[in-house]
Amino acid sequence: MTFTRWENRSVIVTGGTRGIGYGIAELFARQGAAVLLTGRDERTACAVAEGLARTTGGRVTGRGVDLRTPAAIDEMAAEAVRLHGGIDVLCANAGIFPEKPLREMTADDVDEVLDVNLRGGILAVRACLPTMEGAGRGRVILTSSITGPTTGYAGWSHYGASKAGQLGFLRGAALELAPHGITINAVLPGNVRTEGLAELGEEYLRGMAASIPLGRLGETSDIAHAVLFLASDEAAFITGQTLTVDGGQTLPESLDAIAPAAP
Question: Of 22, 153, 159, 204, which one is the catalytic site residue?
């Protein structure tokens, strides 16, 4: 059996400066792909890319991209083509999750989350589409979430709406992209140990770990390997699908349903 060789493959990872996006960018770089990672701040994105290039020995470039600005997204796609000769994989990962109770939520709060999480991802796919169509192949992987499509969490109703919206986009886009040899799929992470999650505090982390049948929070590498598979040649017949990576978090109907840890 042969497996995908990532040398000379061009990969874009939005929101790649930290958390899940960083884990995705790191794994692709270790596999030999040429990676363009983006973040909101140019200096941070470049510094993270330089660090990854040193530690992985891979080709990693960082760019500051405002996903609320269509022109910046188009330039991101053009930059990947200039740097790497094409675009083989788009990992539309960037997302924000500011907590805000519905009663206090403003129109600007809603717009901010939808613009980055949903609109920005859609426009990123659109920007990469001509290059992928020209090549007759491509992979798009969206980072959605269990929150919204499967579960809910008080204070993140706008975030949940953005993540559920990604899946509505996914299914229609899959039908449009399929004739061009392009697949589009989504990963739905559960609670993953990231900088953003750590900011919610130790009590939150312990509570979340207790709700996961496998008994631990996910790691960014758990999500990155799922993304790598969906981007691979081996996943060529998979499109319009979702892959939940949550340690079984969405399975139990209550904490009482989780089996006690083995002695």
Answer: 159
Domain ranges of the chain: 10-242
User: DSSP states of 39-81 as a string?
Assistant: ESSHHHHHHHHHHHHHHH-SEEEEEE--TT-HHHHHHHHHHHH
Residue range 88-109: average pLDDT? 96
Q: What is the CATH number of domain 10-242?
A: 3.40.50.720
The answer to pTM > 0.90 is yes
Instruction: Report which of 19, 16, 54, 20 is spatially closest to residue 35, judged by C-alpha positions.
Output: 16
- Say how far apart CA 47 and CA 50 lie, in whole Å: 5
159 has catalytic annotation? yes
pLDDT level of residue 263 (50, 70, 90 thresholds): low
Integer CA distances (angstroms), 231 to 33, 165, 205, in order: 12, 22, 30
DSSP, collapsed to helix, strand or coil, labels residue 147 as strand
Strands across the sheet with 138-143, in order?
59-64, 34-39, 10-13, 89-92, 138-143, 182-189, 242-245
- SS3 state at 97: coil
Residues 83, 85: Cα–Cα separation, whole Å = 6
The pLDDT of 99-111, averaged and rounded, is 96
Is 219 buried (19+), middle (13-18) or exposed (0-12) by CB count in 10 A?
middle
> Per-residue confidence at 262, pLDDT binned at 50, 70, 90?
low
Q: Distance between CA 64 and CA 209 in Å, rounded? A: 34
